Each structure stands twice: as C-alpha cells, then as structure tokens.
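Field notebook, page 591. I keep forgetting to write these up properly, so this time I am using the form the group agreed on. The chain and the ligand, phosphoenolpyruvate, are recorded exactly as supplied. Prediction of the bound pose follows.
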Amino acid sequence: MKNKAHASSSGRERVFEGLAVGAGVAIGTVFRHDSRAVVQVRERRIPATKVRSEQHRVLEAAAEATARMETLQTQAKRMAGAAGEELGYILEAYQQMLSGSRLVRGVQKRIGEERINAESAVMKEIGLMAEAFAAMDDPYLAARMADIREVGRRLVESLGKEVDGSFEALPANAAIVADELSPADTALLDPRRVAGLVTMLGGVESHTAIVARSLGLPAVVASDDIRDAADNGATIIVDGATGIVIIDPTAATLAKYRKKREGFVKSQQSLKKLKSIPAVTRDGFRIGLQANIELPADVDGALAAGAEGVGLFRSEFMFMNRADLPSEEEQFTELSSTVKKMGGRPVTIRTLDVGADKLGDAFGMTPGPNPALGLRAIRFSLSRRKLLLIQLSAILRASAFGPVRILLPMVCMVDEVRQVRRMLTRLAAQLKRRGVKIADPLPPLGIMIEIPGAALAADALAAEADFFAIGTNDLTQYTLAIDRSDEQVAYLYNPLHPAVLRLIQFSAEAALAARIPVSVCGEMAGDERMTPILLGFGITDLSMSANSLPRVKKRILELNLSVISGKVRRMTSESDPDKVRAIVDELGSAG
Ligand code: PEP
Ligand code: MG
C-alpha cells in the first residue's frame, strides 16, 4: 500500500498513499521542510588577528546551541508518552556533541589553520565527518550522520546565520511536508499552528509517528513521491486514518474531507463525555482503565481522561537530564506529589528501568556486548543496592499519602522478587523505628512480565509477586528477537504474533489461577483493536497513555465478552499470524 501515487482525473488534484499514523483529517497549507538540506554559508578569509575571536565565537555559539537544547529538553518533558522520553535521549546526545566535542575542537583547529570564518569551518567539518560516516556504509551510522548534520545546522544557526527550513515562518494551519522530522525539530513545533504532518521516510514506529500520536496530529509517513508534488503554499489533505494525502484537491474532494473532519471532531467531543462513565462491557464486566505516566505533568492528563489510577509510573524521568543522581528527598517530593494529586486512586510506581543503552552515563555504566540482554532494570538495581534502597525508601514514604504499588521491571527470576521483598521488609522496619510514616500493610510488590522466560514461568512468579503488569512492548521485542527501535526490522514487530499472544494468555491465566491482579501496560493496552483480545484473555485492567483511554473505553462499552471469548480462544490455537490478523479483524466488528 506504500507510495502508490496516481494523478486524479479532476484538474490538478493528485492523490498519494503512505502509512497512516494517528487519527483525524488535516486540511491545511503545505509547509516544506528539508531537514537534510546542507546549509549554504559563504566562506570568508579572516586575518590572523581575528583567529582567536572567531574561535571564541564558536565556543559561544556551542554554548548557546546547548542552552537551546536545554529549552527543548524542557519542552520534551512536557510531551506526553514515549515521544518525550525518546526526544530527551536524542537531545541529550546532541548536547554531548556540542560540548567540547571532536566537532567543536575540529572547527576551532580549522579556523586557525585555514583562516576561515566560523560558519564555513563548521560546514567543512560537518562535511568531513559525514563523508567518513557515509564511507562505512552502515545504516546505523548513516542515521548518526543525520544527527551530526543537525548539530551542525544548529551551530551555524547560533552563529547568526538564518537556516532554511526552520519553523519560525510556519503559517497557521500548516501541513508540514518533510523527508523526515528530527526529534529536535519536532520539539520546536507549535502544535497549535500545525494541522498535520507528511513524511517521506519512517515507519509507524518512527519518531515522527510517535510524536504525531502524542500530539494528536493526523500524519502520514513513508509517502515517497510527495515531495516533488507538494509546492509550498498548496492546499493539502492529510488523512491520518487511511494514509491518503491529496494535493490541490477539487472542490468536491474538499467538501468530502471537510465532512470527514467534522465527523472526527464530533466523535472526539463525544469521547470526552465518557470521562466519568465506568468502563463496563455490554454483558456487565467492569474493566479498570488506568494511565501510564512518564512525567509528573502527565498526572493532569490522566485525571482529565478519567483514569482510575496510575498503572505504570515510569520513574526514569527523575534521573534524566542531570549530572548527579536525585536524592531520596527529591524522589519523595515527586512521588508524594503524584500520589496526592491522584486523590486516593492507586499509583503503581515502577523502580528504575535503565540499561546500558538508556541513561548509562548517569550511572557510569560500561555497555556490555549486548545491552538489551545485559545489566539493566531490576538486574541493575540489585547490583546497586544503595540506589535501590533510596528509591524504595522514597516510595515507602510516599505510600503514606495514598494507595501505592511497587512494580519491578524486567524480572525473570523468582529470586529477584524475593531479594527485593526482603529489602523492603527490612527497610520498612527501620523506617517505622525512626517514626517515619509509611503505609500499613506495606504496598503490594508486583512485577512486569516482559521477558518470555518470565511469561513461561508465570505460575512460579505468581507465587512470589503480588500482581503482574504485562509489558507487551518488551515482551514482543524479546519474543520475536526484534529490536523495538530498529526500523529495518520494524515490519516484523507484531504483538499479534501467536507466540506473543500465547505468552500473554499464559501469564494472565497464571495470575488468575493464583488470584493475583493482572494488567497490561504496554502499547497494546492503548490500541482499541486489541481490546477484545486482552479482555478475552481474562484481563480486567489496562493501563495506557491518557490520550488513548477514551477510545479504549468506547470499545469496551460496545463489547459483549461472552460473544468474543470463543473467537479469542480460537485465535490462540492459530499458528499463522495472517489468520490471527483475520480473526482480529472479525473481532473488530464483533460486539
Ligand atoms: C513494556 O515493555 O511494555 C513497558 C510498558 O515498558 P517500557 O515501554 O517502559 O519498556
Ligand atoms: Mg519494558
């Protein structure tokens, strides 16, 4: 379905297809953005007496660009869902490239040796680095090359040169057409001025896609042929539900899509009305809908969407974008403020989920040969007990302000749960002796089921853990041996693969047999097409980004569990992913 372009018979109207990302229809004005364009700067010779000041200018520009990155980091933090987190990592890498790096030193050397102006020294240095990367002919390094160019652009921008394609001239109601959008660019976008996005590259899991979803913008990605067809200022329709993009639509097409857009806006408004309605299936099964929180600010979104609690509080943000580690006091302040804001609704706080690939620097970790399989999450916490004790202590203290649950990431051994439980019991006794107020009884201690081995040993783990939260993002990645961030294999990433479904089913059954609560908190929980399957497995609690919650609730209200459970059972005996997909489609229309 990708990149089929055909001219329509009506006047200048042209229709393109790409991959649909995010719902809704945008009717806007094309704003072209070429993030890969090489910045054009003029080379100027400088006298020897000016070398020092020109070199100093580079340092100042690097400091300014770094400061801008910091502002973007703050903006990224406000962004809901995975988008903010992803953006944060990349901006952090940009900052590192700017601070006393090979790039800045190379530029200064060049100014001294070639006696040229700072702008052209930056562009020459970038060109040289890009050439070296290109020669390696490796897709991963090619992506890093784009990052280097981006940093170069920003450096030149800080030196005072206007760079093409910045978003400052963004007209109202702009539909951005780009090869791709860098995360830093995306953070600069003012969503109130952007109607939609179209990119030539990227998959449905790309940065652009994640950001578009979290901002609620209609977007189409992987629409190859559109750049030559989309002139700045042209009228464009972006249908985020079907992946259709139309340039210069006829009056009839415009009228048709205006109607579709109105329908979408109305359905969004009616979804808002569901806020205080409980999620109950037509045959009376009550489903608990909670929110995933990445930043404290997300709590407001969760409450606005009618979340009944926090099903996953990703505590990593407290450790991001800082040179030191947060003290127990700082962690306690963040956590207790969330618990208080949730006003008696349960808050599930996950202990630190870092690995050598994520936040490694903050902890002075050396990446192992395979970071995804290395010292990460609970393994890391158990290897740095002092750190874990500080976090557990902050969580226990926060538990005095409302119902709290403690969740351990990436557990695969029964002993990991036992070790943490022992620590928790001892710590609680110490705190009580010191007269510190904590919850009594102690908060439940649960585990993420996100490693296939944990799912297959779910019966043994259910005897140790107080609850399960199934993390379908990592469970899919580890079951299918597909890196969830690698676009080259993104087409294989499929939570509907029978192996993944069976592991979810097995884990849910083990929890139900042991009578412990089980929820799903991976992206699958926020996809309403998956709702019948998860409910059919006996799962009664789902946690997702606040944006997805109303749509999932609507789906639950339409469902009749007794009708769908037979179909779900039939689906898990299928071993062919295509047949599974066909049954999912069937379930989509089942009520
Ligand atoms: C998961 O793996 O499904 C999950 C919820 O954890 P994260 O996305 O934070 O790895
Ligand atoms: Mg995970």
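OBSERVATIONS:
- The domain at 6-36+166-265 is CATH 3.50.30.10 (Glucose Oxidase; domain 1).
- Residues 1-9 have pLDDT under 50 and may be disordered.
FOLLOW-UP: compare against the apo run.
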